[in-house]
């Protein structure tokens, strides 16, 4: 009885009653899970010289991470995990505009924290693989573990179009899955359908820029690499980055 009473009191103290705070924490947690799995798969692939991961495992990890993120917070915040999706919801009047900047901050913050977690998780592997130098280009670059970079042949205009089309397909697909007037997805399996959508986009549109499809997924980890030692080069586009010029 004593233990049960203590746990009941603890739950009462830890229970968050403010709905906005609950939504923010849910968005933070779901985005953290999405990004830590996505970046972790990239780190495992790069630092092991693709002996413990490859392009397909990276795509699968990213898609399954979306599924887990939605299951984690979909019932509380909607598990947007993506500023582009939050913006689309605002434009369709399904999400209040005043919450948009708050969600974007939570999503970006979670991505930044996730990048830090992956960095410390693979700290020894990153430094061993890079021969003690954190670089953005060259055969032993490690910046692409955290952010996506275009292939050498991709121009800025083509890279921009690539992301507009890829993100557009993602949003249209998600809206179709969510639309109750459409051919319905079995209740509870919506996250699985979204994960399959993400996987299909990765497998068909990933070669140009790595298929980030998510501003927070890119800017948060990119900011982390900037402050963690990779320097301002992480914000510059240049040809000849060497092997691993982009990662999914």
Automatic annotation (TrEMBL):
One of its GO terms (molecular function) is glycerol channel activity. InterPro entries: Aquaporin-like, Aquaporin_3, MIP, MIP/Aquaporin, MIP_CS. It comes from the Eukaryota. The chain crosses the membrane at residues 20-39, 59-79, 100-122, 160-178. PROSITE patterns: MIP (PS00221). Pfam families: MIP. One of its GO terms (cellular component) is basolateral plasma membrane. It catalyses: urea(in) = urea(out); H2O(in) = H2O(out); glycerol(in) = glycerol(out). Homotetramer; each monomer provides an independent glycerol/water pore. Could also exist in other oligomeric states. Aquaglyceroporins form homotetrameric transmembrane channels, with each monomer independently mediating glycerol and water transport across the plasma membrane along their osmotic gradient. Could also be permeable to urea. Also participates in cell permeability to H2O2 and H2O2-mediated signaling. In skin, transports glycerol to the epidermis and stratum corneum, where it maintains hydration, elasticity, and supports lipid biosynthesis for barrier repair. In kidney, contributes to the reabsorption of water, helping the body maintain proper fluid balance. This is Aquaporin-3. It comes from Sakesphorus luctuosus.
């Amino acid at each position: 009885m004593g233990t049960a009473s203590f746990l009941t009191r603890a739950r009462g103290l830890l229970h968050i009653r403010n709905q906005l705070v609950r939504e923010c924490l849910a968005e933070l947690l779901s985005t953290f899970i999405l990004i830590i799995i996505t970046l972790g798969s990239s780190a495992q692939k790069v630092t092991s010289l693709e002996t413990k991961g490859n392009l397909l495992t990276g795509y699968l990890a990213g898609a399954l991470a979306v599924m887990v993120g939605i299951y984690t917070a979909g019932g509380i915040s909607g598990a947007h995990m993506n500023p582009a999706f939050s913006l689309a919801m605002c434009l369709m009047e399904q999400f209040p505009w005043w919450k948009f900047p708050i969600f974007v901050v939570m999503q970006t913050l979670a991505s930044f924290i996730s990048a830090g977690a992956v960095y410390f998780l693979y700290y020894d592997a990153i430094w061993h693989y890079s021969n003690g130098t954190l670089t953005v280009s060259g055969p032993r670059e490690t910046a692409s573990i955290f952010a996506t970079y275009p292939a050498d042949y991709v121009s800025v205009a083509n890279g921009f179009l690539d992301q507009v089309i890829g993100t557009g397909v993602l949003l249209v697909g998600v809206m179709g899955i969510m639309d109750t007037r459409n051919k319905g997805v079995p209740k509870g399996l919506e996250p699985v359908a979204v994960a399959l959508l993400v996987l299909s986009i990765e497998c068909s549109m990933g070669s140009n820029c790595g298929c980030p499809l998510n501003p927070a997924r890119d800017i948060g980890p990119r900011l982390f690499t900037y402050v963690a030692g990779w320097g301002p080069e992480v914000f510059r586009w240049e040809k000849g980055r060497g092997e691993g010029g982009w990662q999914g």
